[in-house]
Each structure stands twice: as structure tokens, then as C-alpha cells.
Amino acid sequence: MAEDRKPDSSKKEEEQDRKIRLVPNKDEQYKPMKATITCGKCGKEWEAVLQPCVNISLHPDEKAKVLDGSFFHRVCPSCGETISVFYPCLYDDMQKALMIYLLPEDTEKALEALNAQQKNWSPDMLKAAKICKMRAVGSLIQLVEKIKIFDEGLDDRYVELTKPFIFAQFQKAHPEVEGIAALYEKQNGKNGYTIFCKDGKQFWAEIPEGVYEEVERIFKDEVEKKTTTEYEMIGPGWAHDKIATLMGKSE
Ligand SMILES: [Zn+2]
């Protein structure tokens, strides 16, 4: 009926909204779930409510809680001990069109199951997924790394591809330690990596000027040739494969 028709402007907005609709509709929303938690200190069991999605566009205050880990803290009602509870949880930043799924247990299998669910997605969700950066990570430390990378306006794929080069350089300069992992970290306004060593020592290595851009130039075609609507694990394993592919091609 005529009375029910929306004014043109709001109709337009709605259409616009539909084009890049990143807000899941009602049945696609992530409902809080309950889980039984056992306190590691006193053994008390209780039922806690877990939020399977952090939408930092709708709840900006929750971003800091993810970054400092307190989003995953639960307090034992019996002894007051703070426990970190990790579970599958989606970090959703609509402004950046960024969705990062934390899959702390059996990450690869969980990721496969998650991507298989896409056949149940609405056309809107699939459309949104095409313009979204969709990532999967196995730990909070990796989730935090991703958030920091995208906060700096960098592309995590080139950050991962730059990592092995800086890591190798670092190892050459410090043969006395054994580096085991590197995580993106900005220090004094410069992009670089915190390098974790086997003996517990930590170092920070800068990405020299122009290196990230050079890596982007070399890998751009290989990295951006395919658009996927799946959650992807963009980490050292992924970078290793990409580098191997490109080196195989140049042989
Ligand atoms: Zn307790």
C-alpha cells in the first residue's frame, strides 16, 4: 500500500546498504552461547556466556578488550581467579571490511568446517564476503597481530611475505640465537617484527624502507589473482607456499 512505501532517499540508502551489506541479518547473527568452564585453581565448574562474535563497528569499546585479551577473560565465581577462555570467535570490523575468525582448537579442521557452511549463506552474505578480507587464525596472539597490521593500513599478505626475508637477515646477524617466530609490531613509528627466540629472548627487527613495497611489487600478481569468499589462513605456511610457487615459476 502507498502508506507503506518508503521515501525515495531511504530506499536508495537501503539499496546502497544491500550492495555492501556487512551487517548479518537476524538469522545470520551470532547468538551468545553457554559453556561450562572449570576453574584451574579451585576446580569450580560454572556456566559462562560466550560471545561468538565481536563486532567492533557496533561495539568499538570491545576492540581494546580483544587487544589486551580481557575479552576472553572469565572470573571464577568461587575463588575470583581470572581464566582465559578461548573458543571460535569472529572479529568483525565492518569499516575495514575485515573479518578474522579465531579458531583456537584444531584450527585447520575447524576452518574447513567453517568454509563448508558457506553453502548455507544468503546471497547477501556471499556478496559481502567477496569484498571482505576474510582470515582465520589459531591464537589470540595471531589475531592481535592481524588487527595491528590492518590498523596500519598494511596488507597482511605482504607482511607475511616480507617476514621470511627479515627473519633470514636477522638470523644472519644473530647466529648466536635461534629465532622461532616473528610477529608484526610497530616500534617508534617504524614497521618491523618482534622475533621470538628459542632461549626466550626477544628482538625487534625493522622492515627497511622500500622492502615491503618491493615484496608487494614482486608478489602482487600471484597474490591477487584469485578472489575467494573463504576464510583463509594467511601465515608463515601460506607465505612459504607462495614464495615456493613464484620461485618454481622463475626457474
Ligand atoms: Zn576458582
Describe the structure.
- This protein is an alpha+beta fold.
- It is built from 8 helices and 11 strands.
- It has helices at residues 8-19, 61-67, 107-116, 123-131, 140-151, 156-173, 211-224, 236-250, and strands at residues 33-38, 45-50, 53-55, 73-75, 82-84, 89-93, 98-102, 133-137, 179-187, 190-197, 202-206.
- Strands 3-6-7-8 form a 4-stranded mixed β-sheet, with helices on both faces.
- A hairpin with a 4-residue loop joins strand 6 (89-93) and strand 7 (98-102).
- Helix 6 packs across helix 7 (211-224) and helix 6 (156-173) crosses helix 8 (236-250).
- It is globular.
- It binds zinc ion.
- Residues 39, 41-42, 44, 76, 78-79, 81 line the site of zinc ion.
- Zinc ion binds next to loops.
